[in-house]
Amino acid sequence: MLKLLFLCLVLTLPSIFSDKIRFDNYTLYRVFPKNENQVQLLRGLQDSDPRFDFWTEPSALVNNVDVLSSPEHKSEFESLLKAYNVEFVISNPNIQEAIDREPVKTYTRRNLRSMTWNSYYDLDGINHWIDDLAISYPSIVTIIKGGTTYEGREIKGLKISHGEGRRIIFLEGGIHSREWISPATVNFITNELLTSNDEETIAAARDFDWYIFPVTNPDGYIWTHTVNRMWRKNRRPVGNHVGIDLNRNWNNNWLVVGASSNPALDTYAGLGPFSEPETRSLSTFIESIGDKIDMYLSFHSYSQLLMLPFGNTTEPLANYEDAMKIGRRAMGALSVRYGTRYETGNIAEAIYQASGGSVDWVKERLKVPLVYCYELRDNGTHGFILPEDQILPNNLEVMDSILELILQARRFGYMSSGNIVNSSVVLIFMALLAKLLQD
Ligand SMILES: *[C@@H]1O[C@H](CO)[C@@H](O)[C@H](O)[C@H]1NC(C)=O
Ligand SMILES: *[C@@H]1O[C@H](CO)[C@@H](O)[C@H](O)[C@H]1NC(C)=O
Ligand SMILES: *[C@@H]1O[C@H](CO)[C@@H](O)[C@H](O)[C@H]1NC(C)=O
Ligand SMILES: [Zn+2]
Question: Which Gene3D superfamilies match (predicted)?
Answer without folding.
Answer: Metallocarboxypeptidase-like, Zn peptidases
